[in-house]
Specification:
Layout lengths: L25 H10 L5 E2 L11 H13 L9 H15 L8 E4 L2 H12 L5 E4 L6 H8 L3 E4 L3 E3 L2 E3 L2 H7 L4 E7 L11 H13 L3 E5 L20 H5 L1 E6 L12 E4 L3 H11 L10 H13 L1 H25 L4 E2 L7 E5 L7 H11 L2 E2 L1 E2 L10 E5 L4 H23 L1
Length: about 400
């Protein structure tokens, strides 16, 4: 991250709860309607409970004030903002000619999968990971092959022995999540180098989802997969967006970056089936430029706030729910929590959170092998809301223990 001096949390109102009477979101309003529970606290869907950074709000207001919402054109300043961000933060030189766009990361996977592999080919993914990874593979009539991460002394690692055992002559692609959602790992240069060498040797293309690259903790170095080497850059496609790191999921603009001209040509050819190569969201484009160019200070303050929320959560759970095993994240805004010691079935775990504690979370069993008994808790919320949610958990736990003792 940038070495500029960050402002304090108060400068950006991270402690201030949003006025939900003016909002309609999948994270809160949908969940409250689904459960018919007005008291529900929502820590599930991957978005933040914060306003966007001031430079982004100003950019959107300029677009709205201009009053024209036709097909947008990408000026030089748009590309300069993107290339400047990756060079400034990660030392990754991206050429303007490598950059294409889409409405989102997952929609951009489809044309790449369909153009760079054939029906029935196998594609590797590494659970526990977002359920869309195997879903988009299956929807494209390819075969999803799980290469589960392994947990060593509380830390997740790639299982290269399992990966070698899973690869066949039909394996054409690997979907990498970096930083990893939900576990919060930031893969090291050595790990990425080993993965690249493995894939190049076997002609396996790497699609890497790097949407959380802007939310890396402290001094942890993030290495884009394509920045590992020229070889890695030529054998990969990077999928990234301002959607997660800057809380702009509703603006529908993402980037597809690859140095390999054949991969880029294939991607553009695949877009023709949906006509997504033409036009785009004028607001998403303006927000992307402002986020990458003008929001370093806001990001530093945000990441510090999320780190503080994690430390608070860890301390609270150690004191009040010591059976919960907490994974140490290096990035993202999630706490990955192991509730297996509670010995609850998936149904009972859902009842514990939604009915006993009145809390919405993401359940790990939906994220594939290795997610069973885990929950993903979204920390990108004012501390007061987080604290109330944790207090509810502690109260529900005490009530459950009392019932078992009686």
């Amino acid at each position: 991250m940038s070495t500029i001096q960050a402002k304090t949390y108060a400068d950006y109102d991270f402690d201030k709860a949003l006025d939900r009477s003016k909002l309609s979101t999948a994270k809160w309003e949908f969940e409250i309607n689904r459960t018919n529970d007005p008291s529900l606290l929502c820590f599930g869907t991957a978005e933040m409970d914060f306003k966007a950074a001031p430079p982004i709000l100003e950019a959107l207001q300029r677009v709205a004030k201009a009053g024209h919402f036709g097909y947008p054109y990408k000026r030089a300043s748009y590309y300069d903002a993107i290339t400047g961000y990756f060079q400034r933060h990660f030392g990754w030189h991206v050429n303007k000619s490598w950059i294409a766009s889409n409405v989102g990361i997952y929609p951009s996977m489809q044309p790449l999968i369909e153009e760079l592999s054939s029906l029935g080919d196998e594609i590797i993914y590494q659970p526990p990971v977002h359920h869309i990874f195997p879903e988009v593979i299956t929807a494209s009539k390819r075969v999803p092959v799980a290469n589960p991460l392994k947990k060593q002394n509380g830390r997740y690692e790639m299982d290269f022995d399992d990966l070698a055992a899973k690869v066949t002559d039909k394996t054409k692609m690997l979907l990498l999540c970096s930083p990893h959602n939900p576990i919060g790992r930031v893969w090291t240069r050595d790990e990425l180098t080993r993965l690249n060498e493995f894939c190049v040797k076997r002609n396996i293309i790497v699609l890497t989802d790097e949407v959380y690259c802007g939310l890396v903790y402290g001094q942890v170095p993030f290495v884009p997969f394509a920045a590992v080497s020229h070889e890695a850059s030529m054998n990969s496609v990077t999928l990234v967006s301002v959607s997660k790191s800057f809380n702009l999921t509703g603006l529908k603009h993402s980037l597809v970056i690859t140095e390999n001209p054949k991969f880029l040509e294939s991607y553009m050819a695949g877009l023709k089936r949906s006509n997504l190569y033409f036009g785009g969201c004028v607001f998403g484009q303006a927000a992307t430029e402002a986020a990458f160019r003008d929001c370093d200070e806001w990001t530093q303050s945000l990441v510090s706030y999320i780190e503080s929320n994690f430390e608070f959560t860890k301390s609270f759970l150690m004191k009040n729910l010591p059976l919960v095993n907490v994974t140490e994240p290096e990035a993202t805004y999630f706490a990955w929590l192991d509730f297996n010691a509670f010995r609850l079935s998936p149904k009972e775990l859902r009842q514990f959170f939604e009915e006993d504690a009145h809390i919405a979370v993401t359940y790990g069993d939906a994220l594939g092998k290795g997610g069973e008994g885990y929950i993903r808790l979204n920390l990108a919320t004012p501390k007061s809301i987080l604290e109330e949610g944790l207090q509810r958990l502690a109260k529900a736990y005490s009530h459950r223990v009392s019932k078992l003792e009686n």
